[in-house]
Design goal:
By secondary structure, the chain is an alpha+beta fold. The chain is built from two helices and nine strands, in the order H-E-E-E-E-E-H-E-E-E-E. Strands 3-9-8-5-6 form a five-stranded mixed sheet. The protein has a four-stranded mixed sheet with strand order 2-1-4-7, with no helix packed on it.
């Protein structure tokens, strides 16, 4: 009788261990999907996607005085930045230039991550005078630039 109880306990323990081994997953085997952040009340959402050395935007014509909430998702395999600046900045610009002429800048957007930016355009800009871009490495030269318009 004593052997049967001991055997039953041992069998239960072994089955529990085997069941646990079959259901565990390691953190490295599951790719985390970034969570979309909530859009603050009163803001117009703008979905920005950085992918295949391109910038895609759900809106490319903006209105002065409208608060926008940019949700910037990096779906690429490399790090990017998101810059709103006057056109003609070229592919390689200095930190000083970035800080003094850009409208907004988000740096170090790692792959599979989301960054946000709240921004309200203050003045209208002629078509072709503002762009969204990434200036990392040769991304700009490879086409990682998107012209936008700001209307009254």
């Amino acid at each position: 009788m004593k052997n049967r109880v001991l055997f039953a306990l041992l069998l239960t323990l072994c089955l529990s261990l085997f069941a646990a081994c079959g259901t565990t997953t390691s953190a490295s085997s599951v790719l985390a999907t970034p969570t979309q952040p909530p859009v603050p009340a009163g803001y117009t959402p703008v979905q920005i996607t950085l992918q295949d050395i391109r910038i895609h935007s759900s809106i490319t014509t903006f209105k002065v005085g409208v608060p926008y909430f940019f949700i910037i998702t990096n779906k690429d395999k490399v790090e990017h930045e998101f810059m709103m600046s006057p056109t003609g900045m070229g592919g390689h610009i200095t930190s000083y230039t970035m800080m003094n002429v850009t409208f907004a800048l988000i740096e170090h957007i790692t792959p599979n991550s989301i960054k946000t930016l709240s921004y309200t355009f203050k003045t209208p800009e002629p078509p072709g005078s503002i762009e969204f871009a990434c200036h990392y490495s040769d991304h700009y030269a490879m086409g990682m630039v998107l012209p936008v318009v700001v209307e009254k």
